Amino acid sequence: MTGSTRARVARGAAAAGLAAAVLAACGSPSERAQEGTDAEGLTTLRIGATPMPHAEILEFVDENLAADAGLNLDVVVYTDYNQPNAALSEGELDVNYYQTAPFLDEYLEGNPDADLSYVSDVHLEAFGVYSQELTDLADLPEGGEVGVPNDTSNMGRALELLAAEDVITLADTGGSAPSVDDIEENPLDLTVTPVEAAQLPRSLQDLDAAVVNGNYALEADLPATANALAWEGTEDNQYANGLVVRSEDADAEDVVRLDELLHSDEVRRFMEERWEGIVLPVGGGASED
């Protein structure tokens, strides 16, 4: 996380108790755009994001591109997947950027009163199978233990990667995300243990291997400190990360401008150079037309 991101987080934490009242007074992003939000005439978007790569990408946009597009990005950093959708629904945020469309679908199924919309894909973080001790997936021991994320969409994604590597076989779930109960064949009699996604890198020392989300692998520097045994394929991958807003703001001018910036050539180059193939820019923005 950059120094300026930490500063923004501190400011956001200090103002958390007032956030809902302030945002209620300010109205939607489009309303604030009409009224003007600061002395420079920039519209402030309050965006919830997980630290890496999401907050770093937003910080790059804020420092290099946002002002020319009439925007100021106030980045609020969250360290888990549970809070940003609730904060967005409750009006504490204008946008969040940390999740996949299947993850949002899962959230909306459990929270039917939340009226949130997925805007577009921005980047893909390739899942990886990591181990502290093993150097080859074929060396997984009989009776070993493999960690996977415990939320539905990411667990399914992790299990599909293990199945693609012939570690397990999954039952046909009819298109819904598989769970550990859908493991049909398990030749090594592995224990597949669901763990909160953010905790998987720390749990790796107690596991033979773990399937880890790209952002959490980067935060823990797993590409440098652990062995990558397998990578998720990117072709026809439905698990890109993108912007989410309240449905009423899906076409707001400020949101459209932010989406365009995130799909700009500058941001694409930043992702490719900063994360060298783990964070992959994907289409969806107007700038690619």
Automatic annotation (TrEMBL):
Q: Which keywords belong to this entry?
A: Lipoprotein, Membrane, Palmitate, Signal
Q: What's the protein name?
A: Lipoprotein
UniProt xrefs under InterPro entries: Lipoprotein_NlpA
What is any Pfam family matched here?
A: Lipoprotein_9
Matching PROSITE patterns:
PROKAR_LIPOPROTEIN
Question: How does the record classify its membrane topology?
Answer: Lipid-anchor
Q: Which compartment or compartments is the protein found in?
A: Membrane
In the record, the note on similarity to other proteins reads: Belongs to the nlpA lipoprotein family.
Is Acyltransferase included in the keywords of this UniProt record? no
